[in-house]
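Protocol step 4 of 5: obtain the predicted structure for the target chain.
Materials: sequence only (see below). No template structures provided, no constraints applied. The aim of this step is simply to have a reference model before the mutagenesis design in step 5. Sequence pasted as it appears in the construct record:
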Amino acid sequence: MPVIETSAALLALTALLAYLLGSVPFGLVMARAFGLGDIRAIGSGNIGATNVLRTGKKPAAALTLILDAGKGAAAVLIARAMLTGDAAQLAGLMAFLGHCFPVFLGFKGGKGVATFLGTLLALFWPAGIAACLTWVLVAAVSRISSLSALVAAALTPVWISVLGMPQAWVVTALLAAVIFLRHGANIKRLLNGEEPRIGAKG
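Step 4 output (structure tokens):
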């Protein structure tokens, strides 16, 4: 756990603002901007970049990925610049939860992988790089986005500890736990050999 240096009032304000930032559904915005309609009616119904990619619109998927990762990173970096490390960790967690459970979409959001990686890169970039490389390696071998995310999430607390920021272990373990929670249906399909591969259209 980080040392708590920020006042309770400022931490509460940080949590609220970071949550609202994380709640912005960029996948939905990009799908509509590219004339794809409501992304929730396509493929898996998820608002993340992987489902946007299923439409065949790679630029829309790339922008969704960048913006979803960026909101997590922005929350961390702004909180760290204006306050301290405890606020930065809280901001990253709340932006991630905002993406997964956005108030603007009735708390039905994405699975959080891009926001998770963006948050981690901003919190502690060596562990973020390790998580991204883990995702890429598993994706290259399996061609399954959900499996890549699950392995990357599971190993993140390990990377955090090994690479030298153990004070962020709790928040990264919470992030990883939510990733697994949000991928419950994917885990069932993986066990049944039915999970779609990267690039497959919905």
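Step 4 remarks: The chain has ten helices and no strands. The mean pLDDT is 90.
Proceed to step 5.
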